Amino acid sequence: MSGQLADKVAFITGAARGQGRAHAVRFAREGADIIAVDLCGQIDSVAYPMATLEDLQETVRMVEATGRRIVAEPADVRDRDRLAEVVARGVERFGRLDFVLANAGILPAGGRQAHDITAYTDAVAVMLNGVYFTVEAALPALLRNPDGGAVVITSSAAGFKPVSTEFGTMNHGAAGYTAAKHGVIGLMRHFARSLAEKNIRVNTVHPGGVATPMVLNEALAEWVGEYPSFGESQRPLLNLPMMTPDDVSDTMVYLCGPAGRYITGVTLPVDAGLTLK
Fold first, then answer.
1. Residue-wise pLDDT tens digits, 192-203
2. Cα–chain-centroid distance for residue 72?
3. What range does the domain containing 257 cover?
4. Mean pLDDT across the stretch 102-109?
5. Phi, then psi, of 151 in degrees rounded to 5
């Protein structure tokens, strides 16, 4: 199998749709086998419909259509033991683990649920604690890999600037999203420094708005309509179409592949200049 990532193995969270699915398919096209998880259920504080088991099954179909193999199971990133079970099954089948893409995320900043304190605690549990659990669950297999490996954590432009833009946009979900996306920078630096001697590189990627169901939904559209300042704050400097998940996948391949072999400890914006505003 040819490709930049031939015969490597990637563990990807939030893989049922959106960025996670795009990463799974792209890494497979580059020659990697995939271990994929997604909650495949709803979190009450999230106002838009989340991914389903059928979505995860479609990711399986798309990966297998490339000719690569995939182990895909429902799993909650808030459950470290469950993540470890799935990783172990994938490594047993594929024999190794090379890459971890800690991608799973929610955006509980829209809808009436955003004003419940659980919107904050859920955001931190999924996107900060869940990232830590993801890396920890994968670490034993990564450490057994004599070639080392790479971890890429999906942060956000909100890792540099808050979601809230004025008093009216301040809610528990926006606070939790901002806190989690800032927090994973600290986790990245912790792991990057600690794992360098094992030749494991760790970086964060910070997309702006990406055309996924997490962003393109009725609840968030209503929020933007009510508070135009939020929509303006998400307008990038470059006059380009809205980013697609595939655009972020290009960056993931770069950081995990041979071209990124000297890169670790980096917070990489992929946002058309959004965070310069």
1. 999 999 999 999
2. 16
3. 9-269
4. 97
5. -120, 130
